[in-house]
Amino acid sequence: MNTPRTMFEKIWDRHVIVKRGESEALLHIDRNFVHEGSFHAFGALAAENREVRKPRQTFAVADHYVPTLNRDRGIAAVTDPEIRNQMEMLANNTKKHGIVHYGIDDPRQGIVHVIGPELGITQPGLTITCGDSHTSTHGAFGAYAVGIGASQLKQILATQCLWQKKPKTLRVSVEGAIAVGVTAKDIILAIIAEIGTAGATGHTIEYAGSAIRAFSMEGRLTVCNMSIEAGARAGMIAPDDTTFAYLAGREFAPKAAHWDSALEFWRSLPGDAGARFDREVTLNATTLAPMVTWGTSPEEAVSVTAVIPDPAAADNADKRAHMEQALRYQALTPGTRLTDIGVDYAFIGTCTNGRIEDLRAAAAVLKGRKTVIPAWVSPGSTTIKLQAEAEGLATIFRDAGFEWRASGCSSCAAVNGDIVPAGKRCASTSNRNFEGRQGQGARTHLMSPAMVAAAAVTGKITDVRTLMAGRP
Amino acid sequence: MQPFTRLTAVAAPLDIANIDTDQIIPARYLSKARGPGYERWGFHDMRYETDGREKPGFVLNQAPYRNAQILVAGANFGCGSSREAAVYVLLANGIRAVIAPSFGDIHYGNELQNGMLPVVLPADIAHKLCEQLKSQPGVQIGVDLESQTVTGPDGATYHFDIDPNQKEKLLNGLDDIGLVMQNIEKIEGFELRHHEELPWLA
Question: From A319, which residue of chain B is nearest by alpha-carbon distance?
Fold first, then answer.
């Protein structure tokens, strides 16, 4: 009898073309994504006179640098010549190589990790790459999806293959029903707080357990998205009927007879009974409260009901030094209650939390209330933006005083002009609270969309559960 | 790719954990083309005040370490974003090797792709090296890929591990694409089979 294999091992084995020594394999890459930031790879390709070997297996979208304002003006809305040049380079490079490109004015435009699933390009059992660390998002479908740098991207464009060292496997089981007001974002922040920002380095995480299984695809995408914040190579969740129902009928999903063959293949992907992981971590979901980061690393997260921890209590010198620096940068003192921290800006969107369910959750808090600070929404894709408008969510956001903007990476990459000013504090649904991430000197607190909405209407970090009485 | 064999050079202590790639190059400089002046974006916000003056406390601004070619850093160096520009600015600043207790996975790979050597040494050794570099500013460290050893300022040597394939590529400056295309017949055979089995992906 064959040795039982994990889902990761099944996908890995199927994509190995040749091995080099014990540890390294040449993998076939099924789907590859590029964005404006991919210009280094295209430039190197041109310098070496190379062609794109499989242009139909790469998809391009403008997301990192697109403005979220004045989008009816198309590329003319981009005033910075360097950024405009970068967007034009993507259009030209993809045209030259015959790669499909969803540009700034395309109705399918959106954040790469949102539109991949939305268009059905992301499917179970695939190997997926993109020159962006949040490529781990796509693993929510039971795919092996890895973020890469420009050199590896060049290699994939030129060959459709990637040399990879086989990662170890880590299963994170999240068991139990989550409480009202607790979301996928809180689960992944709790996992990172537990295992640390380097806790999964060298590993592929498989998320399992009843709490994960209960999530919609939107929630699963949020969990897998932040795998990289725990240092993981990739994150994945076994596909099930939730996955298949999401994919059915999408533009690039298999159709007719192919759909039945695909279903059979997809159902074969979950790990075999008795398959062994290199490591196991278990988390109890039932006791979790909404989570908020206080520091400058995603692991510096605590329950909204807690106080800012004291570096003196840190279990090692490295951690203590990082906490001290984080407190200086964030202008916070140990012992302060999270709910006593005032915020200046609120931002909802990103590949972590810019999907329709995220917007619904925030709107449920905002309905009939007013924000007391500057606040904006950038939906994860243009499709989601239109859907939210059709559902009446956009009206709720606007009535509450939020700016309703176009789709892009916005203030998560903070390279399109959407920055938080120095010294200001932002409640954000994004994925990184690094120093300067949302703008030089900007202070970020990561939380769920509903929690950002709660902070927007109170002007301080607020336990959203206190605002939810009598609401759906 | 430029090979890496051995290097004996001034090393700078950057004894901070979790230096993410946003610190190595802030995102607002990612649209800059590589070329003269590119070094300016390296560690920009750690290195310069908002008015452009150097922060004297930052190690690479201090005279003995200005020409450092080796960094000794804290754990999880290069975590975060996949931006390869983080490697480009290290190279533009003359850095060819980074020693740390651990690295962000993608950044580790990006260094190797560009002829840089990321060296993993246990935290206590990395800390000890940092202390030595601080007490004798401008002192040199040796890094030898062939023998997989680091030689400290006091002559003590430390072994480090590296994947044998990565070592061979780096020693010889081999390009990944060349190594892929040696297998072109196998690749084409694989693709034919793969797309027969999963025809909706063809």
Answer: B17
Tokens of A143: 């795919």
In chain A, where the domains are located: 19-165, 293-467
Say yes or no for a CB contact (<8 Å) between A133 and B80: yes
Give the whole-angstrom CA distance, residue A182 versus residue A464.
9
ipTM of the complex: 0.96
Span B108-120, pLDDT tens digits = 999 999 999 999 9
**Mean pLDDT in runs of 10 for chain A (472 residues)?**
92 97 93 96 96 98 96 92 94 98 97 98 98 98 98 97 96 97 98 96 98 98 98 98 98 97 98 97 97 98 98 92 97 98 98 98 98 98 98 98 98 94 98 97 98 98 93 70
Interchain proximity B50–A441, CB inside 8 Å: yes
Q: Where are the domains of chain B?
A: 6-161, 163-202
Helix, strand and coil content of chain B, in percent to the nearest 5, comes to 40, 20, 40
Look up the CATH number of domain A19-165. Answer: 3.30.499.10
Identify the CATH number of the domain defined by range A293-467: 3.30.499.10
> How are strands ordered across the β-sheet holding A203-208?
A234-237, A203-208, A168-175, A279-284
Chain A residue at shortest CA distance from B48: A440
CATH superfamily for B6-161 is: Aconitase, domain 4 (3.20.19.10)
pTM, to two decimals: 0.97
Q: Do B180 and A147 touch (CB under 8 A)?
A: no
